[in-house]
Amino acid sequence: MGLLGWSLVLLLGSVLGFGLLTLWTTSVTVVALGVGLPLTLLSTVLVRRLADLHRRWAADRLGEPVDRPYLPTPEGSWPVRLWAILRDPATWRDWAWLGANSVTGWFTYGLSFLLFLCGVCCLSYPLLYALTPPEVFRTPLGNGFRLHSVQESFALVPLGPVFLLLWWTTAERLANLNALVIRSLLAPTAEAQLRARVAHLAASRAETVDTQAGELRRIERDLHDGAQARLVSLGMSLGLAEQLLPDDPRAVQQLLAEARASTADALAELRDLVRGIHPPVLADRGLDGALQALALANPIPTTLVTRLPGRLPAPVESAAYFAVAEALANAIKHARARHIRITVEFTPHPGTPHPGTAAGPLTAGLLTEGLLTMRVSDDGHGGATLDGGTGLRGIARRLSAFDGTLTADSPPGGPTEIRMSLPCASS
């Protein structure tokens, strides 16, 4: 019945689409005469809105997203924007879809609605015959089959269940067929997907290079201001002790004690620096153990929930650890939260055998492709945004190097939930 309602809505959308096709064709034609620019932009916007609605419907039917294929519209005057829109191949594919949908729609969801309507009409034909004037509903199958009484109209009642059965068995197939037509015409082409992928990789590479350069500068600064300064002081103390050794052994003893303290401080700073690059606990105990250590050291009560079937690749574990650590630091510094919850879960892709399940010994030790999802939520005052200067943008850049994503749900007044995901493999 839900598909029946959608059939009626899509039929109305098909009629609206044909009207938009006529309007858009007319407006593009008169653009060459120097008029019609506002009308063309308006009709293009309306066509794209209608196409977006059909993309969402097709995505719900097929169980996978149907992305928008449009190129970014540059800023500028109307002629500049219009020229960019007209040069976009997706605009012309929308035009082709409007024409195709005006035909294919009647053979998919239109046929489904017609079968249901015929079934209902046949079941209620005696009532229609009795309530309507003599000139209507008397030749349901043409002039060769004329009805003369209500009793004769009962001959059409058995056709009702036949039409309803046809509708019941074909409704989903016809709806899926229409969704496939929508995806084939309104989804990005392989060339557009490749172009978008190249652009994403170029931006991700640039951000990764900038992030790595910033990390190198930080490490250099920490070494210069910390361990290097202490080692220089240590060398000076040892040199002075060497000079005082013949004359003042007590002063030498004090200098050696200071040198030993400087050595311990330099070693501690080097260890902290190493932890900032790759924590030893992450290498020893994996992401689960590293996050447990992170939660235990947090001054705010923190609950950790992990569902990890095994070890993840080292770069992914490192990126996930530092992403959670940065999100946790943001919550401590900005949210004024009383409790923080961290949830980390690995979800295998559908159809991929899970490690350690009854998939058989052939899958033992193999990598399982899936998605690592991390959520850091708190009961603070909210208001966290990617552009708010809270470090979330840096987390997003770190995750983008692995095709990861970050979203923030933080209304004013709270609570806040930072959702991060990384495609990866588990062993």
Keywords:
427 residues, 5-stranded mixed beta sheet, elongated, 5 strands, 63% helix
Question: In words, what does this structure look like?
Answer:
This protein has 13 helices and 5 strands. The longest helix is centred in the middle third of the chain and has 55 residues. Strand 1, helix 12 and strand 2 form a beta-alpha-beta unit. The chain starts with a helix and ends with a strand. The chain is of the alpha+beta class. 25% of the residues are buried. Strands 1-2-3-5-4 form a 5-stranded mixed β-sheet. About 3% of the residues have low confidence.
Beta-strand content bin = 5-15%
Helix content: 55-70%
Terminal CA distance reads 45 Å
Which blocks of ≥5 consecutive residues have pLDDT under 50? 354-365
